[in-house]
Design goal:
The chain has 305 residues and is an alpha/beta fold. The protein folds into 2 domains: 214 residues, 3-Layer(aba) Sandwich (Rossmann fold); 66 residues, YebC, transcriptional regulation domain (Alpha-Beta Plaits, 2-Layer Sandwich), CATH 3.30.70. Helix content is 33%, strand content 29%. It is built from 11 helices and 14 strands. The strands form 3 sheets. A 6-stranded mixed β-sheet has the order 6-7-8-3-9-10, with helices on both faces. A 4-stranded antiparallel β-sheet has the order 2-1-4-5, covered by helices on one side. A hairpin with a 2-residue loop joins strand 12 and strand 13. Helix 3 crosses helix 4 and helix 4 crosses helix 5.
């Protein structure tokens, strides 16, 4: 089961929410679909789930065009939208059984999803009485009821407490072994934990599509944490070949340099020349959050347009 997007564009009047976007996701992949607010993430997800049509381009799920095989495709897709729509006056089990009846799913499957999503303690409550986190669980259970082959999850851990987040992440990770999972989130730690690949969209265009490992390498820089015995100024580091930036954080200095340059020897030589001592030096892993900010930042000249 695969998901393939070919040159999808979406116009709202004169505003272009998506601009010829193309990508594919295979079975067994959990792909993070990232972007700032207004980048086009939710628009793409709504197109893939048949809620809105694209202006141009095609999207295929299991080789079926979502525009011409809409009902068949929807049976293959489970969707948890960002704003989770639920019948607040219904009880948890009642709601899930109602949805199961619509899709022809057995009551046994309802019980299985209640257990898997951790809803058992709240199953006899009205949905309107639940916390935001438990409502999110109800939405996830609903999305999984018909055992879809493709899962599209928009902010799935919104409103969950730390323990609930761990449980839902574990469930998504398990599902990723046998399903095609597209996950949108603003929590970069979630991407680091769950996703093997990242697609970053900004202003309706894809600006990155690669593995999480390659994304870090593509940043082209390294970060070092340095602690010195004696106090120094920023100029001390600027005098060292290869260092592009230095800033102080408490008793440590955060040093940036090109990825292909090993500046540790140069730092050591500078310490010897200035009769200082290096108490600690270590490399800090490049975070996806830092790369995301670089790829989606708004330049000062663009902010007023």
């Amino acid at each position: 089961m695969s998901l393939e997007v070919k040159n999808i564009s979406k116009l709202y009047g004169t505003q272009k929410a998506l601009n010829e976007v193309s990508f594919s996701i295979s079975k067994g992949e959990i792909v993070g679909f990232l972007g700032p607010n207004g980048a086009g993430k939710s628009t793409m997800m709504k197109i893939l789930t048949g809620f809105i049509p694209p202006t141009s381009g095609t999207a295929l799920i299991d080789g079926l065009d979502i525009s011409t095989h809409s009902l068949t495709v929807r049976r293959k897709v489970g969707y948890l939208p960002e704003h989770n729509p639920l019948y607040l006056d219904m009880y948890v089990r009642e709601f899930l059984q109602f949805m199961a009846g619509i899709t022809g799913v057995s009551k046994a499957r309802v019980d299985e999803m209640i257990e898997k999503t951790g809803l058992t303690p709240e199953v006899s409550k009205r949905i309107g009485q639940l916390s935001k986190g438990y409502r999110q669980r109800v939405g996830l259970a609903h999305a999984l009821l018909h055992d879809p082959e493709v899962l599209i999850l928009d902010e799935p851990t919104t409103g969950l407490d730390p323990n609930q987040i761990v449980e839902i992440r574990r469930l998504i990770s398990d599902l990723g072994h046998s399903k095609t999972v597209m996950l949108s989130t603003h929590i970069m730690q979630e991407v680091e934990i769950l996703c093997s690949r990242v697609i970053i969209i900004n202003k309706g265009k894809i600006v990155a599509d690669t593995s999480t490992e390659n994304l870090r390498k593509a940043s082209g820089r390294q970060t070092l944490i340095v602690e010195l015995e004696k106090e120094v100024s920023n100029a001390w580091f600027k005098a060292i070949d290869g260092i592009t930036r230095a800033r102080r954080e408490g008793k440590h200095w955060i040093i940036e340099a090109p990825a292909q340059v090993d500046v540790r020897k140069n730092i050591f030589e500078q310490a010897v020349r200035t009769k200082n001592a290096i108490l600690n030096i270590q490399q800090r892993e490049t975070k996806i959050e830092d790369i995301f900010r670089e790829l989606t930042k708004v330049l000062p000249a663009q902010e007023s347009t």
